[in-house]
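User: structure tokens for this one?
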Amino acid sequence: MRVLFVCTGNTCRSPMAEMLFRKLVSERLGCADRELRERGLDVFSAGVGAWENLPASPEAVQVMREHGLDLTEHLSRRVHRVMVEQSTLVLALTGRHRDLLLNDCPALGARIHLLDRDGRDVHDPFGGTVDDYRRCALQIGQNLRQWVEELFRKDTTLT
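Assistant:
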């Protein structure tokens, strides 16, 4: 299973979503993050308008550190068709991101979803305060818990 998170620049929201998702799944499986791939799960992130190889924003790094996660090695990347084609599940952080992906890959619509189950966009904290990033991470985390529960119900290979 391959899970892809998509936002705009791949320096805030989608890398935080990737890291938080990895943490939730690792905890659920009782394994280390580095063992996820061995367990059949690949998790990554990209951005629809990302410049290649930019670090995560300092605020995103700080907020992830508060969650016990290290985002210091993250480098941004632009989403491309092959990433989407090779993903089992694509979670877009806004409706605009989802629509761009669906326009580029209409045949893959069944695997492209909005992260927020209620149809809300995840607010972009870029340029905001650390508290803006904390609120963003909270919104991401609340939605990720629902996705993790669903994935474990549907995919028995993860248990």
